[in-house]
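Entry for the shared binder. Reason: the reviewer on the internal report wants the predicted structure included alongside the sequence.
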Amino acid sequence: MSAGSAATKEKLLEGALSTLVEQGIAKASARTIAATAGVGQGLIFYHFGSVDELLAAACRYGAEQRVDRYRDRLAALGSLPELLEFAREMHAEERAAGYVAMLGQLLAAGQNSPSLAAATAAGLGLWIEELEAVLERLLAATPLAGFADPAGLARATAASFVGIELYEGVDPEGAGRALDALEQLAALAAVLEGLGPLTQRAVRHGLRRGTRD
């Protein structure tokens, strides 16, 4: 691919993302995206084949950018409470930037578009991969190691990330309480991490009994 062609594709991807964030998926037509990108409409079909395929590519492209933005911060986290605090800060940042609302729209549109569904799942998969690695590392230092499922927790976190944003639109107070509940979990995690070896063994023993019952 030539440098000029690559630059045009990047302009279209950026234009699609800007259109989704600023105007919503209902306004994401070839004309609007091309105008935002500053290129001709025909280039959308030349490079991507259709508007849906461009939106799908933009979804993956945007997810890669957002994950890259937070990767170093995720790698620096040293405890579960720090992870939950970071999640709240990231939610606020992503909400203010319009990316969470955009993801919610893509999830809804994906119900009727296989290409958008696959791209949105792939975008979420990038987040899930990062979160799973962090959870595996942090859980290993707690009595929950071996009992909590990092892969499942990473998926639940990603789903909650979008769900709280959508819920906030109809019940801001309820969404705030949901985030507060995460902070309560952070406090519980801090207590578990601070337990001595004997108490941690007792906790693990209780968890084993609970999983067998």
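Summary line for the report: The two ends are 60 Å apart (CA to CA).
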